[in-house]
Every structure is written in structure tokens, then in C-alpha cells.
Amino acid sequence: MQNNMLEDLKNIMKEGWLEKESRVFKTWRKRWFVLTTTTLYTFKGEKQYSNPTEMISLSTISTIKSCQEETNKENTFKIDTPETTFYLMSNNSQEKEVWIGAIGKAMVKLHMKKNQADDDFD
Predict the structure, then answer these.
(1) Dist CA 70 CA 33 (whole Å)
(2) Which parts of 67-118 are beta strand (E)?
(3) Which one-letter DSSP state was computed for residue 60?
(4) For the stretch 25-52, what's the b/e string if a residue is b when 16 or more beta carbons lie within 10 angstroms of its beta carbon?
(5) Which of 88, 101, 76, 104 is nearest to 32 (CA)?
(6) Predicted confidence (pLDDT) per residue in 17-66, tens digit
(7) For 70-110, how does the pLDDT look when each residue is reduced to its tens digit (9 = 90+)?
(8) Cα maximum dimension of the chain
(9) Do 41 and 54 form a contact (C-beta atoms < 8 A)?
(10) Assign residue 47 a region: left if phi > 0, alpha if psi is -120 to 50, beta otherwise?
(11) 68: which of 18, 19, 36, 75 is 20 to 30 A away, CA to CA?
């Protein structure tokens, strides 16, 4: 798995600091987010690409959207997967929109690539 991650990290589309609500204690923790063509990773340190705290496969994301009403915090958005919902917070609304757009765009590209691969087998 480590080799796949290292290979995947050669395809970084966006990276930067966001806060993520912890699943157990519901506290907000600063994490370095890295978006690749297939996965959204979180790490404890900036550009320290080992021991990710989360690995979210883009193919498992059902929705990504703003959720300020749900969290009662500005600049928050959520990522829904079958297993869990991830709550994230950026420093400002522009950064939030850029992250939502980048993740959404990566999801579409991945879906199109998968469909194209499926068509190749028909």
C-alpha cells in the first residue's frame, strides 16, 4: 500500500492546510490535505507524505458540499462516503470553494477515466 501511495503522490493536484473534525472527540484538528488524481490524503505535517491520518478514495465520495448550517461554523464543507462523513473547515470562503471545486473536478475526471476504461472492454 505504501508503494501505491508514493506512486499516487506523484500526481498531486492540490495541497494545503484545512481543519478536520475528529470522528471520536468532535474537536477540530489542523491537517495537511493532499489531493491526487485518485485519493484525498491527510497528514499531520506539511509536505510530510508518510503515515496519513486519512485516505479517502475519490471513487467512494458520494457528495461534497458546504455545511455551515450543520456545523454552525463558517467556511465548512463535508465529504460523504458510505462509511462516514468528513467535516472540513478552511480559512476563508474562497479557499473552501477552491477545495470543493478541485475535489469535484478530480472526482469527475476519475469517473470519466473509469468509464473510458470500461468502454475499452466492451
Answers:
(1) 22
(2) 76-80, 85-89
(3) G
(4) eeebeebbbbbbebbbbbbeeeeebeeb
(5) 88
(6) 999 999 888 899 999 999 999 999 999 999 999 999 999 999 999 999 99
(7) 999 999 999 999 999 999 999 999 999 999 999 999 999 98
(8) 48
(9) yes
(10) left
(11) 36
